[in-house]
């Protein structure tokens, strides 16, 4: 969600009681309200307060030396990275560079990371949005975390045993990968993601800006193991967010701009957009039967899932829906209204009938509760409650799903349980394990786009504010403010019992397998030998490291040589990481215990050039250095 939308609102003031602020976007609110239930009155809130039974009582305190209960995986937003947080302490445990470059680890600089980045190795920027872990039978399995790069249409995979990125692909035929989730059941065979911006098919320079009839947005289905695009589905409108069911049958994506407008006015003219539901079995069958086309000179099968196709169904929902969230009991898809104050509840059990045309698309909607202004994303607990971020109201609305369905059916019930002020303008929110069958109703994170007055001012650019909310009782309780950098869009929380990480690298790790293959060709055993291989203008320098020494304290190259330094860390001690850094060359990397890492640069400066270990490893770490002589 862009920050731009909020400018006018911010100018109107921040105070929650500010009437102008509440009425911002009021027109859309009224238009979208239709015949849904009336908003909460003060009297209703009072009744709720009386009925209060259990208090939120989770402890957010994690004492020094104690460990957190959850791993939180945070998108780093436009920093392009992923971060691991401890929850509930909200301590940042690690940063995983993905689409960015990182001088601490050498990500984007080392030969290994460049191989993983592949054809996009020259791109040094990224905009990461949605980190989601692979699952088995609807539960996190601790194997991979996938994340999209909206800026460069990429999808990356992080291996959770070492917490390093091990695959990055650029998705063809689309621009801007946005919503990303995984197949939950029976296991994550596929990663699903939306191509957001509609582009001409083919996009070969022959299309015009005026005739947009060939502009399309594609839904992408990626094989989680091979990280190849299995197929794409062409749709009407442009895709935003997505999620999968708990039956292994359907995926659903929100679509805004069903108008196919090319500017803001055109994009928000229609009162209704839609949710596209994809039948996985029908799509797979169509690929098998060869019922696809290819575009832009690549061989990725593109299925036609536009209106009228048997592969998809279009469910009309109020204008410009954003988030798409599956309830952990597997019963509902919830599409979040954004420009409508409502969310739309789609009954997954009705989708079979929808696909066999026994019911009409709107018949799949079983509830459309009105929650407040700017609903963006919804999270769930294990007690049938949902938590929806209200971007414009700067609140989280807690509501009961079955009560909202009953109200839609005409019953006089109050589905709203509580509204909690958050600070400010929340985008995503997430509950502990809430996108899995293990949803436990303990914690809720609200990722707020603005922090305004919540922290010491640090100049015109402020941090975002990730707030921790205890949802274990009947009422949500805000317990922590956490400043973060560069707009974490989304996050998820995985119980620590699901994650098993390695303490040392194993020598057969695929991340450096190719480097070891090159060593083999050179006849060098990098575990035992320190050796310089001269290969025309190329020089490969193999050296070991064991605290506080490199296996080679000097070597010579010629001016202009392309030098590759391959360092193997022989230490078998947990947490003893070495670095390799050449002064004045932009050469810097991490070599974990038992790992091999390599980096290539041009020796373009004559004379003595010191290299040193840049990760503190030993009392004599400062002395861990050597000389490269560049002969003119
Ligand atoms: Cu709502 Cu990219 Cu998930 Cu931002 S998206 S908020
Ligand atoms: Cu090795 Cu510092």
Automatic annotation (TrEMBL):
GO terms for cellular component: membrane; periplasmic space. Residues 537-632 are annotated as: COX2-like. Ca(2+) 2 binds at residues 256, 259, 267, 273, 320. HAMAP family: NosZ (MF_00716). Keywords: Calcium, Copper, Metal-binding, Oxidoreductase, Periplasm, Signal. Cu cation A2 binds at residues 613, 615, 617, 621. This is Nitrous-oxide reductase. Pathway: Nitrogen metabolism; nitrate reduction (denitrification); dinitrogen from nitrate: step 4/4. The keyword Ribonucleoprotein does not apply. Cu cation Z4 binds at residue 489. One of its GO terms (molecular function) is copper ion binding. It catalyses: N2 + 2 Fe(III)-[cytochrome c] + H2O = nitrous oxide + 2 Fe(II)-[cytochrome c] + 2 H(+). Its EC number is 1.7.2.4. NCBIfam families: nitrous_NosZ_RR (TIGR04244). It is an enzyme of class 1 (oxidoreductase). It holds the Pfam family nos_propeller. Nitrous-oxide reductase is part of a bacterial respiratory system which is activated under anaerobic conditions in the presence of nitrate or nitrous oxide. It comes from the Bacteria. Binds 6 Cu cations per subunit. Each subunit contains 2 copper centers; Cu(A) (binuclear) and Cu(Z) (tetranuclear). Cu(Z) is thought to be the site of nitrous oxide reduction.
């Amino acid at each position: 969600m862009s920050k731009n939308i909020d400018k006018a609102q911010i100018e109107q003031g921040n105070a929650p009681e500010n009437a102008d602020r509440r009425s911002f976007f009021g027109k859309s609110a009224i238009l979208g309200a239709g015949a849904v239930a009336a908003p909460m009155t003060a009297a209703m809130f009072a009744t709720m307060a009386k009925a209060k039974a259990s208090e939120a009582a989770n402890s957010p305190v994690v004492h020094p030396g104690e460990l957190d209960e959850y791993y939180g995986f945070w998108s780093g937003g436009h920093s392009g990275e992923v971060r691991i947080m401890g929850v509930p302490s909200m301590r940042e445990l690690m940063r995983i560079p993905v689409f960015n470059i990182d001088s601490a680890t050498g990500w984007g600089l080392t030969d290994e990371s460049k191989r993983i980045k592949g054809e996009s190795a020259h791109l040094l920027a990224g905009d990461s949005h949605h980190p989601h872990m692979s699952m088995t039978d609807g539960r996190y399995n601790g194997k991979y975390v996938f994340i999209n790069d909206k800026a460069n249409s990429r999808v990356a995979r992080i291996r959770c045993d070492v917490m390093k990125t091990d695959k990055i692909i650029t998705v063809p035929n689309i621009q801007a990968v946005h919503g990303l989730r995984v197949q939950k059941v029976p296991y994550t065979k596929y990663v699903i993601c939306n191509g957001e911006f509609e582009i001409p098919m083919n996009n070969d320079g022959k299309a015009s800006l005026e005739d947009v009839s060939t502009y399309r947005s594609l839904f992408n289905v990626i094989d989680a193991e091979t990280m190849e695009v299995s197929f794409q589905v062409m749709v009407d409108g442009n895709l935003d967010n997505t999620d999968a069911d708990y039956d292994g049958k359907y995926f659903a994506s929100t679509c805004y701009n069903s108008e196919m407008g090319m500017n803001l006015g055109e994009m928000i003219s229609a009162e209704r957009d839609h949710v596209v539901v994809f039948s996985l079995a029908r799509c797979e069958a169509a690929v098998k039967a060869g019922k696809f086309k290819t575009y832009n000179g690549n061989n990725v099968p593109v299925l036609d899932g536009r209106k009228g196709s048997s592969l998809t169904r279009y469910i009309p929902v109020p204008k410009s829906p954003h988030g798409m969230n599956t309830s952990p009991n597997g019963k509902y898809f919830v599409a979040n209204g954004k420009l409508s104050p409502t969310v739309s509840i789609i009954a997954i059990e009705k989708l079979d009938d929808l696909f066999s045309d026994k019911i009409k698309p709107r018949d799949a909607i079983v509830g459309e509760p009105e929650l407040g202004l700017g609903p963006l994303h919804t999270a769930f607990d294990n007690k049938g409650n949902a938590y929806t971020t209200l971007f414009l109201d700067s609140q989280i609305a807690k509501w009961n799903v079955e009560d909202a369905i009953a109200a839609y059916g005409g019953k006089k019930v109050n589905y709203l349980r509580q509204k909690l002020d958050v600070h400010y303008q929340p985008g995503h929110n997430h509950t502990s394990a809430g996108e899995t069958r293990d949803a436990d109703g303990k914690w809720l994170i609200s990722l707020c786009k603005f922090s305004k007055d919540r922290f010491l001012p640090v100049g015109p650019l402020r941090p975002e504010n990730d707030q921790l909310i205890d949802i274990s009782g009947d009422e949500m309780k805000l317990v922590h403010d956490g400043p973060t950098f560069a707009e974490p869009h989304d996050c998820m929380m995985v119980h620590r019992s699901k994650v098993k990480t390695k303490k040392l690298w194993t020598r057969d790790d695929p991340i450096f397998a190719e480097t070891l293959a090159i060593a083999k060709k050179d006849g060098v055993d990098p575990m035992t030998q320190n050796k310089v291989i001269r290969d025309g203008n190329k020089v490969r320098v193999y050296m070991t490291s064991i605290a506080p020494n490199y296996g080679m304290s000097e070597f010579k190259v010629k001016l202009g040589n392309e030098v590759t330094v391959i360092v193997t860390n022989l230490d078998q001690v947990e947490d003893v990481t070495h670095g390799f850094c050449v002064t004045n060359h932009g050469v810097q990397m991490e070599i974990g215990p038992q790992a091999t890492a390599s980096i290539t640069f041009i020796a373009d400066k004559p004379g003595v050039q010191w290299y040193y270990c840049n990760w503190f490893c030993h009392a004599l770490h400062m002395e861990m250095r050597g000389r490269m002589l560049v002969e003119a």
